[in-house]
């Protein structure tokens, strides 16, 4: 079983930076996908950045040029470097791993989230 745990959230002023980290805490298939999502109260969770099994990276348009996703497959970690933060980036941030599980197929594993607050 995989139980992701996020860290690195906090309070930062607009224009500042934060680096989120997430450790998988479990075995991942060699081909797996990692992603960061965020959610604000009353809104749907949206994918902020993702890396697929072929290392293709994509970002939601609102963070392009400011956020960078990366991962370390040996350490089973995924990171989100967030620069030039804006108040509208304030949200709970979640990491998600998508991994092949024997006899069960592709499964998604979510962390409990880390809060990010950007003050103006």
Briefly characterize the structure:
This protein is mainly β. It is built from no helices and eleven strands.
Task: Give an overview of the whole structure.
By secondary structure, this protein is mostly beta strands. Helix content is 0%, strand content 54%. 28% of the residues are buried. The model has no long low-confidence stretch (mean pLDDT 96).
Largest sheet: 7 strands, mixed
Give the rounded overall mean pLDDT.
96
The residue fraction in helices comes out at: under 10%
For the secondary structure, the number of strands is 11
- From the spread of the alpha carbons, the general shape counts as elongated
Proportion in β-strands:
over 45%
- Count of DSSP H/I helices: 0
| Low-confidence residue ranges | none
What is the string of helix and strand elements?
EEEEEEEEEEE
Class inferred from helices and paired strands = mainly beta
Global Rg:
14 Å
What distance separates the N and C termini? Answer: 40 Å
Describe the SSE topology.
Layout lengths: L4 E3 L2 E4 L4 E6 L8 E8 L6 E6 L5 E3 L7 E6 L4 E6 L8 E11 L3 E6 L3 E6 L1
Parallel strand pairs: 2-11
Antiparallel strand pairs: 1-3, 3-8, 4-5, 4-9, 5-6, 7-8, 9-10, 9-11
């Amino acid at each position: 079983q995989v139980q992701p745990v996020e860290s690195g959230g906090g309070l930062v002023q607009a224009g500042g930076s934060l680096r989120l980290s997430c450790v998988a805490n479990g075995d991942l298939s060699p081909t797996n996908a990692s992603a960061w999502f965020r959610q604000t109260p009353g809104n749907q969770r949206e994918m902020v950045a993702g890396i697929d099994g072929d290392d293709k990276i994509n970002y939601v348009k609102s963070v392009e040029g400011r956020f960078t996703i990366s991962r370390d497959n040996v350490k089973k970690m995924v990171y989100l470097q967030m620069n030039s933060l804006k108040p509208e980036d304030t949200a709970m941030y979640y990491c998600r791993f998508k991994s092949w599980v024997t006899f069960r197929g592709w499964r998604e594993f979510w962390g409990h989230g880390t809060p990010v607050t950007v003050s103006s």
